[in-house]
Amino acid sequence: MISRRDMLRTGAAAGTALLLPREGFAQAVPFAPKPGKWRDFEVVTRLDLAGQGKTQAWIPLPSVAEAEWIKPGRNDWQSNAGSAEVVRDPKYGAQMLHVVFKEGEAAPSVEVRSRFSLRDRAEDFAAGQKAALSPADRKLYLEATELMPTDGIVKETADKASAGKASDVEKALAIYQWVVENTFRDAKTRGCGTGDVASMLRTGNLGGKCADLNALYVALVRAAGIPARDIYGIRVAPSQFGYKSLGAGSEVITKAQHCRAEVWLEGHGWVATDPADVRKVVLEEPPGNNAIDNPKVVAARDVLFGAWEGNWLGYNMAHDLELPGSKHKVGFLMYPQAEVAGALLDCLDPDTFKYTIKAAEITA
């Protein structure tokens, strides 16, 4: 019987010894998410818009429903919009509230309340078989997107990163290790990045944030013939394992967006991964600029292939999303979007495009 820890030790032996935990490290840094008690949350997103001309907005709603770790609940809203309806992207199933305001509305506004439940997840690699992936989903999560090609330099890089590995588990782990070892979190990157994988590899600039680094992982895994997907979401609570960098810092989560990744492994189903958060721990976990063999980095690197903490809301898996009722398309839907007089507002500047997002845990 092979545990996740044993598998990671084996993978590290083929790559770098820095992954191997030191004796006693688990007691010093007990980063060990595992399925347990469900926690209930509410996220409130409020937009206050201004400008001349037709105004409309799109607010992402929790669309991911996975029995093992996330259960979306009820969405309610208040708005002075002329129309407000929940719409669903037909390809990925991403849900959003689409509001359209009447011409001349002096102060367009909308407030959305979304409830959902979360818990930690961790894959037991020694457990029994899980259901197979449907042919339609396999096709969807192997295909290239505009920002994530799977041929050319992406395929060449995937082949090099997974060279000598036979099983999908070994290949997915080898690519995870490659991303952790060869990328870096760039604090200068706006928002969560753009996820332009081909440009990253062509230029050799492998810096960015989660939408870049995890998109790189997903594209490389797909290029290796293994289904994978990004999940776009937001951190909603502090880490219960002492990681300042891996949780929300306050109830105001306006800038706490984060995307994660999953890989489909036969017999195990969708498995949690997050190489981008390993690089976040390297750069940001106090005192900052940590060495790769820092115990907290080692712990994160160990855990984040196969597990993650349930303090993060996954909105959707959508790529190259056309906004309903608009000529505009976005690479992914992780932030509120709004359009005034045909111009898409800058969702990465909530001080100009005025919106706030707050999260609270429901304990009663």
Describe the structure.
- The chain has 364 residues and is of the alpha+beta class.
- The chain has 2 domains: 211 residues, Roll (C8orf32 fold), CATH 3.10.620; 123 residues, Immunoglobulin-like (Sandwich).
- The protein is built from 9 helices and 19 strands.
- The strands form 6 sheets. Strands 4-5-2-17-18 form a 5-stranded antiparallel beta sheet, with no helix packed on it. The chain has a 4-stranded antiparallel beta sheet with strand order 3-6-1-19, with no helix packed on it.
- α6 links the parallel β8 and β9.
- α4 packs across α7.
- The chain is globular, with a radius of gyration of 20 Å.
- The N and C termini lie far apart (41 Å).
* Element-level helix/strand string: HHEEEEEEEHHHEHEHEEEHHEEEEEEE
Structural class: alpha+beta
* Annotated CATH topology of the largest domain: C8orf32 fold
| Total domain count | 2
How confident is the prediction overall: mean pLDDT? 92
Segments where pLDDT lies below 50 for 5+ residues? 9-29
Number of helices: 9
**Can you name the CATH architecture of the largest domain?**
Roll
